């Protein structure tokens, strides 16, 4: 059997990771493939329904707070390290389900995921050769030039840390007006437009810094092609699937495990 395709849903807290992960799982299943949803967020209060492998079976934020007398931030840090110690149990549970796609919902606080060594160990353990990071741009941040640039840099940080291919998604695209959507997608296609927007947003820009920063952003290339998605409206899911397939090597689809229901 071919190795499953693994997709990590990453992004700032509230960006829409959990919602998109669930919608994408439904789309994948209705297209005739098997999907395993993995929850790696020990602090989520979302119900277990719809999750196939749940880290809360091994590590729960509330228990860590109580047991070690930690506040929410300290407990998050401790939990990140504890997850790494349980990752082979998680991996085994995932492998037993033998799905075509493994969709991983990552912890709510991105700094824990992006900057801790434990997360690197977790991703290394779960990833095979067919793995991709999906980075969600939260529209409430992405719609201002400064917020957009910050998200581009965060996305690059994740790519750099995990050394995995990455696709950038604009989440909750239904929450933007058509004009805002066009503007934001324009920034991703043409760094020159983003440069103009940033320099006109700030009345006294540090021109030297901005120019150097924009050279770096232009050099990042993969920024081009920010893909609009909406879990609420179920849009952008097929393009996301196609982007993942391209990354996994070859545009060929897997043979469906069962008959598609969405055609
Ligand atoms: N309008 C809109 N809201 C969304 C969408 N996806 C998620 N949300 C809302 O955004 C909030 C955060 O979503 P969630 O999936 O929990 O984000 P996470 O913290 O990144 O896992 C919730 O209130 C969701 O209802 C979407 O596609 N459109
Ligand atoms: Mg979540």
Overall description:
51% of the residues lie in helices and 13% in strands. It has 263 residues and is an alpha/beta fold. It has one domain (5-247): Rossmann fold (3-Layer(aba) Sandwich), CATH 3.40.50.300. Helix 2 packs across helix 3 (72-97), helix 3 (72-97) packs parallel to helix 5 (117-126) and helix 8 crosses helix 9 (191-201). The longest helix has 26 residues, at 72-97. It is globular, with a radius of gyration of 19 Å. The two termini are 25 Å apart. The mean pLDDT is 89. Residues 11, 13-19, 108, 172, 174-175, 230-232 line the site of guanosine-5'-diphosphate.
Summary, kept brief:
51% of the residues lie in helices and 13% in strands.
Task: Provide keyphrases for this structure.
alpha/beta, Rossmann fold, 7-stranded parallel beta sheet, 11 helices, 7 strands, 51% helix, binds guanosine-5'-diphosphate, binds magnesium ion
């Amino acid at each position: 059997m071919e190795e499953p395709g693994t997709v990590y849903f990453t992004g700032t807290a509230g960006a829409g990771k959990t919602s998109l992960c669930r919608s994408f799982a439904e789309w994948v299943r209705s297209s005739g493939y098997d999907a395993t949803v993995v929850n790696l967020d020990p602090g989520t209060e979302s119900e277990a329904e719809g999750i196939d492998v749940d880290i809360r079976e091994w590590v729960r934020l509330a228990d860590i707070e109580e047991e070690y007398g930690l506040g929410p931030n300290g407990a998050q840090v401790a939990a990140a390290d504890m997850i790494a110690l349980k990752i082979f149990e998680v991996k085994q549970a995932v492998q037993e389900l033998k799905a075509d796609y493994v969709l991983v919902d990552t912890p709510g606080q991105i700094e824990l995921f992006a900057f801790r060594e434990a997360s690197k160990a977790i991703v290394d353990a779960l990833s095979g050769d067919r793995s991709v990071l999906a980075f969600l741009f939260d529209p409430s941040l992405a719609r201002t030039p400064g917020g957009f640039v910050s998200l581009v840099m965060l996305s690059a940080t994740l790519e750099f840390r995990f050394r995995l291919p990455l696709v950038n998604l604009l989440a909750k695209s239904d929450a933007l007006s058509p004009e805002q959507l066009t503007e934001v997608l324009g920034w991703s296609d043409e760094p020159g437009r983003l440069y103009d927007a940033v320099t006109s947003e700030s009345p006294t820009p540090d021109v030297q810094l901005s120019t150097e920063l924009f050279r770096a952003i232009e050099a990042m290339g993969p920024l081009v092609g920010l893909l609009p998605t909406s879990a609420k409206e179920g849009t952008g899911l097929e393009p996301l699937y196609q982007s993942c397939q391209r990354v996994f090597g070859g545009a060929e689809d897997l043979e469906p495990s069962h008959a598609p229901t969405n055609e």
